[in-house]
Design goal:
The protein is α/β, with parallel strands linked by helices and 377 residues long. The protein is built from 12 helices and 12 strands. α2 packs parallel to α8, α3 packs parallel to α4 and α9 crosses α12. The longest helix has 39 residues. Bound molecules: pyridoxal-5'-phosphate.
Length: 377
């Protein structure tokens, strides 16, 4: 099986697994207990917090552990909306549902929410953002990189514009973390979400960076863990794994990104040359590992199913939306018709992808397209 769906999730790194096994075997204590078993667990959580903060240039006390990207996004959007005096939210039409849906929830409760449009490459226009933050706005939430296309948003510019208007900025960096260098100070954001299972860590762990002094209302109430922002006994083995995954991602980032970009570019060139009519969605400023390709007149889902039968895992977009038949809201927001959007397939490569796999992958895509084109009326 060739795995080309790293944006959906990634395999656990063996070093992460070893760190988690050690935590599972020897440290069962509750980090809130004052006895030595509890304190041993506390030390593991503290170490992980330093490792996690290190990936994004934050201080350890600015990290709130959560269950993953979805929870971090919800805590940022709903937590600021509840705590802030400003009423409005500005976001983009291409956010992941973990941001869009809490924004829609707030809209239904009477908050003014602006969903900024994007251009054909999937990027928001800073002038439109500047215009939108002028009124009674509490938060701008703009993703760093898109999960479907890999398109990178001008978050630092957006943060400068928002800051000038005194508005907080959150970025969903779930896809960008481990693939792009991230420094929260350079980005100028006050909140940033990321997730363990996208960077070879375990599922069920994630973090929200909350800049010192930013006020948030928690989603869950009932204890003092995570500075009361996310109470409940910590998932110590998952947090340990997430910490190790962040440490590895930081150490390997440059080399991994360079290598995977070469593989992705090679694959992309092969498909564009060998499958007439194909084109890439998402412009030139994209994550190094992602290519989203339109196969006009064909159905992306049919290509995905055929590739699965041929031994290759890809997807048509966000895994959590794959149950519904609607075309990617990201591609539609980029100005594509529903039919165009449905013809696209996302290929996302990663740390374990090999040269040989990428060559084989392009052959399999050519084969799948041939099968489907022959079946066309
Ligand atoms: N945000 C983006 C951009 C994502 O790609 C994802 C997952 O695909 C999420 C949020 C949700 O993260 P998690 O799966 O950790 O809940």
């Amino acid at each position: 099986m060739i795995y080309a769906d790293y944006n959906a999730t990634t395999p656990l790194d063996p070093e992460v697994r070893a760190a988690m096994n050690e935590a599972l075997d020897v440290t069962f204590g509750n980090p809130s207990s004052i006895h030595s078993a509890g304190q041993a667990a506390r030390r593991l959580v503290d170490r992980a917090r330093v490792q996690v903060a290190g990936l994004i240039g934050a201080a350890a006390d600015e990290i709130v552990f959560t269950s993953g990207g979805t929870e971090s996004d919800n805590l940022a959007v709903l937590g600021v909306a509840e705590a802030a005096t400003g009423h409005g939210i500005v976001t983009s039409a291409v956010e992941h549902k973990a941001v869009l849906d809490p924004c829609k929830y707030l809209q239904a409760k009477g908050h003014a929410v602006t969903f900024l449009p994007v251009d054909r490459d999937g990027r928001v226009d800073i002038a439109a953002l500047e215009a939108a933050v002028k009124t009674d706005v509490a938060l701008v939430s703009l993703m760093l990189a898109n999960n479907d296309t890999g398109a990178i948003q001008p978050v630092a510019e957006a943060a400068r514009a928002a800051q000038a208007a005194g508005v907080l900025v959150h970025t969903d960096a779930v896809q960008a973390a481990g693939k792009l260098p991230i420094d929260v100070k350079e980005l100028g954001v006050s909140l940033l979400s990321f997730s363990s299972h996208k960077i070879h860590g375990p599922k069920g762990a994630g973090a929200l960076f909350v800049r010192r002094g930013v006020r948030l209302t928690p989603l869950v109430h009932g204890g003092r863990q995570e500075r009361t922002l996310r109470p409940g006994t910590e998932n110590v083995p998952a947090i340990v794994g997430f910490g190790k995954a962040c440490e590895l991602a930081r150490a390997r980032l440059d080399a991994d990104a360079r290598r995977v970009a070469e593989l992705r570019d090679h694959f992309e060139k092969q498909i564009l040359a060998r499958v007439p009519g194909t084109r890439v969605n998402g412009g030139n400023q994209r994550l190094p590992n992602t290519t989203n390709i339109a196969f006009p007149r064909l159905d992306g889902e049919a290509i995905t199913i055929n590739l699965d039968m041929l031994g290759m895992a890809v997807s048509t977009g966000a895994a959590c939306s794959s149950a519904d038949k609607t075309p990617s809201h990201v591609l539609v927001a980029m100005g594509q018709s529903a039919a165009e959007a449905r013809s696209s397939v996302r290929f996302s490569f990663g740390r374990d992808t090999t040269d040989e796999e990428v060559d084989r992958a392009s052959n399999l895509v050519v084969q799948a397209v041939k099968i489907l084109r022959e079946a066309l009326p």
